[in-house]
């Protein structure tokens, strides 16, 4: 059976909302918050757990929205900033979807089938997920991922 872990970025693995003046930057089409956001977790430890889960057969996917009202040019720069952030922290993903704000995230990974677990801080997104379980990213997702390594 296919098993997939789907991660949001902002407020889930990247502390975008902890960046001072993040909203003003986004409104004014500055990518600074996406570039300087600190990780929500110890990324060395998170990577270790994700690599263990990948070895156990899980696929790791990042599905993240772009800025709500951004121009095409700003969305392009945001895509690059998010890709650079993931590279900077060596996040071990297999697939990525950098999609328009409000996109139904389940539509991005539906083709993968199997068991899918969404990690997202947005309750509305979690409520709209119909591909399996959801995890509120305001919980300790690292502890939850560690438990998954024991359940396989």
State the shape.
globular
CATH architecture: 3-Layer(aba) Sandwich
| Mean of residue pLDDT values | 96
Helical/strand content category: alpha/beta
Q: Using DSSP, what is the number of strands?
A: 5
Summarize the main sheet. Answer: 5 strands, parallel
Number of helical elements: 7
- Kindly report how far apart the N and C termini lie: 12 Å
What does this structure look like?
With 152 residues, this protein is an alpha/beta fold. It has a single domain (3-151), classed as Rossmann fold (3-Layer(aba) Sandwich), CATH 3.40.50.1000. The protein is 40% helix and 19% strand. It has seven helices and five strands. It has a five-stranded parallel beta sheet with strand order 3-2-1-4-5. Helix 3 runs parallel beside helix 7 (141-151). The chain is globular. The protein starts with a strand and ends with a helix. The mean pLDDT is 96.
Provide a brief overview of the structure:
With 152 residues, this protein is of the alpha/beta class. It contains 7 helices and 5 strands, in the order βαααβαβαβαβα. The mean pLDDT is 96.
Helices and strands in order:
Blueprint (H helix, E strand, L loop, with lengths): L2 E5 L14 H6 L4 H5 L6 H13 L2 E8 L6 H17 L6 E5 L6 H4 L5 E6 L2 H5 L4 E5 L4 H11 L1
Parallel strand pairs: 1-2, 1-4, 2-3, 4-5
